[in-house]
Specification:
Elements: H1 2-11, H2 14-20, H3 22-38, H4 41-55, H5 71-95, H6 103-119, H7 129-138, H8 144-174
């Protein structure tokens, strides 16, 4: 998930490089390389073995190991994140018009906000972290009131979509 969010952020970060320069862009590429390397089986399998030994619970099941790089999972998560980003973009367009040059900024800010909301501990569902990051990243280009409205509406749409999906799964199980 983190790798996918970083990929989308990097692909859409032309304005970040223009505003903050190459050092920030270089740090993003280094972070992406570290994340992509960390999910490689040569790195992840020894880590899983070490953590299972630290757990000190004897189980008869063999520890989980990756046989190959998880490309399908990475592409699936990338598709998931792009669809969520398009949802955020459409929500933004419903509230306020966006110039075509700002589309990549909005998608990049969404991806980074989503990533920080995902990885910050203690915030259930990233509530507050996603919103604060999106406002901080987009507040310089757009009115903070517009950004706050978009973020709140997007959160409402996301919660309603997840509740509808859970309701349909529950109805499907009752058959």
């Amino acid at each position: 998930m983190a790798a996918s969010a970083l990929i989308v952020t990097l692909v859409c970060s032309q304005q970040i490089a223009a505003r903050y320069g190459l050092p920030v862009l270089a740090m993003q590429w280094v972070a992406l390389a570290i994340v992509l390397a960390s999910i490689h089986p040569r790195v992840l399998n020894p880590l899983i073995r070490t953590l299972s030994k630290l757990k000190q619970k004897s189980t008869d099941a063999a520890p989980f190991t990756l046989q190959q790089y998880p490309v399908a999972a990475l592409l699936g998560e990338l598709g998931f994140l792009v669809l969520r980003g398009l949802g955020f973009l459409l929500t933004f367009l419903a509230i306020s018009p966006i110039d075509s040059g700002e589309l990549s900024l909005v998608l990049s800010a969404f991806s980074l906000s989503w990533l920080l909301g995902l990885v910050v501990p203690g915030a259930p569902g990233g509530v507050g972290v996603f919103e604060a990051t999106a406002i901080a990243l987009l507040g310089q280009t757009f009115s903070p009131a517009i950004v706050l409205s978009v973020v709140a509406l997007y959160r409402l749409i996301s919660v309603l979509a997840e509740a509808a999906g859970a309701g349909m799964a529950w109805l499907d199980e009752r058959k």
